[in-house]
Amino acid sequence: MSATVEYTKMNAIQQQGKLVQQLRTESALQRIKLSVAIEDLKKYVMEHEQDDYLVVGFHSQKTNPFREKSSCLVI
Question: What are the tens digits of pLDDT across the range 12-65?
Fold first, then answer.
């Protein structure tokens, strides 16, 4: 066997080892139920809706980054 073939096999083994380690790490994570996460998300949205420009709009046109830019006319 050539050195490049052995290196490729070692590299593949290392990649698989990293994948197994990542899967072990992810499986050890504590997860919360979806129903709890949804309630937390709804609570966050309700607490911050007064700061959401998509809900309340902009206080003035100058603070709106999406306003139509004035065009420059050349005479």
Answer: 999 999 999 999 999 999 999 999 999 999 999 999 888 887 777 777 777 777
The token duo for 35 is 């129903």
* Of residues 48, 67, 68, the one with CA closest to residue 56: 48
CA 65 from centroid of its chain's CA atoms: 23
CA–CA distance, 52 with 46 (Å, rounded to integer) = 10
Count Cα neighbours of 29 within 13 Å in the Cβ-side half-sphere. 9
- Is the pTM for the entire model greater than 0.85? no
Q: Cα 25 to chain center, whole Å?
A: 20
Structural contact between residues 50 and 56, judged by C-beta atoms closer than 8 angstroms: yes
Reading the block at residue 4, the tokens are 């490049």
